[in-house]
């Protein structure tokens, strides 16, 4: 499909980019599971490689050829809209620092059993509401080697634009899905043989230096929301509670930083 020069910001084909929130994109009409925004050629490439289907691309003139190259076989059928930076900023509400963004069809989330099949080290996020933290945790998981991530119903959506951007697209690489309540999730973990270690500041918490992660073939690291921490239900469902030893009177780290430390310590 040839490049399409934008001459009217009211073109209905551009509606995916017109100041829409992540929530609105998730509920986009005419889609099976909603949409998400992939920001940058790198993220678009990772999305396509993961099997996600692009709906359209919005690009600065000097990145159009790169967009076509990344689209690969989709280049023949996916429209690539091109315009100057000022016009695209007016359309989207922000400057395209990375040169392009793409509207992507959200895939159907896999079942938790599918995500856990063959996994040895996983991360569970309970009620982590900040998409920046979610994205940073996914990036650490991809780099350090977690096999999968489970997110609870109140956790921020990993497909939100900020989460995907902060993760450098690893949200599209690390297998993940949503789980239900703790009764259901505990049964799921037991079925797959997982020992769940909760990262929390409790009186019975064991230092990560002393916790033998290698003693568990299947290990799940549970992380909670900043401020509130883990719920009583999550702690009750856990097999162990661990904490990161600290100095200078500091009792905790940002959840994204703590996740990286704990994942590395338990990578086994």
Automatic annotation (TrEMBL):
<dbReference type="Pfam" id="PF00588">
    <property type="entry name" value="SpoU_methylase"/>
</dbReference>
<keyword id="KW-0808">Transferase</keyword>
<dbReference type="GO" id="GO:0032259">
    <property type="term" value="P:methylation"/>
</dbReference>
<dbReference type="GO" id="GO:0003723">
    <property type="term" value="F:RNA binding"/>
</dbReference>
<feature type="domain" description="tRNA/rRNA methyltransferase SpoU type">
    <location>
        <begin position="122"/>
        <end position="264"/>
    </location>
</feature>
<protein>
    <submittedName>
        <fullName>RNA methyltransferase</fullName>
    </submittedName>
</protein>
<dbReference type="InterPro" id="IPR001537">
    <property type="entry name" value="SpoU_MeTrfase"/>
</dbReference>
<dbReference type="InterPro" id="IPR029064">
    <property type="entry name" value="Ribosomal_eL30-like_sf"/>
</dbReference>
<keyword id="KW-0489">Methyltransferase</keyword>
<dbReference type="GO" id="GO:0006396">
    <property type="term" value="P:RNA processing"/>
</dbReference>
<dbReference type="GO" id="GO:0008173">
    <property type="term" value="F:RNA methyltransferase activity"/>
</dbReference>
<dbReference type="InterPro" id="IPR029028">
    <property type="entry name" value="Alpha/beta_knot_MTases"/>
</dbReference>
<dbReference type="InterPro" id="IPR029026">
    <property type="entry name" value="tRNA_m1G_MTases_N"/>
</dbReference>
<dbReference type="InterPro" id="IPR051259">
    <property type="entry name" value="rRNA_Methyltransferase"/>
</dbReference>
């Amino acid at each position: 499909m040839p490049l399409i020069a934008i001459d009217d910001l009211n073109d209905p084909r551009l509606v995916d980019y017109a100041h829409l929130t992540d929530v609105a994109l998730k509920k986009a009409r005419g889609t099976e599971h909603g949409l998400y925004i992939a920001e940058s050629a790198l993220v678009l490439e990772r999305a396509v490689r993961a099997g996600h289907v692009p709906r359209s691309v919005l690009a600065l003139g000097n990145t159009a050829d790169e967009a076509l190259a990344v689209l690969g076989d989709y280049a023949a059928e996916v429209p690539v809209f091109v315009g100057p930076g000022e016009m695209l900023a007016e359309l989207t509400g922000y400057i395209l620092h990375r040169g392009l963004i793409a509207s992507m069809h959200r895939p159907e989330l896999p079942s938790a059993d599918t995500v856990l099949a063959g996994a040895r080290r996983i991360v569970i996020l309970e009620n982590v509401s900040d998409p920046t933290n979610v994205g940073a945790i996914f990036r650490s998981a991809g780099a350090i080697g977690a096999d999968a991530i489970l997110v609870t119903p109140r956790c921020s959506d990993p497909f939100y634009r900020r989460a995907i951007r902060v993760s450098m697209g690893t949200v599209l690489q690390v297998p993940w899905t949503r789980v239900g309540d703790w009764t259901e999730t505990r049964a799921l973990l037991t079925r797959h043989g997982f020992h769940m270690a909760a990262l929390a500041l409790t009186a019975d918490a064991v230092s990560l230096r002393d916790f033998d992660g290698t003693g568990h073939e299947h290990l799940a690291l549970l992380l909670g929301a900043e401020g509130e921490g883990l719920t009583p239900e999550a702690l009750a469902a856990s097999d162990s509670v661990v904490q990161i030893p600290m100095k200078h009177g500091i009792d905790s780290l940002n959840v994204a930083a703590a996740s990286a430390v704990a994942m590395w310590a338990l990578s086994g």
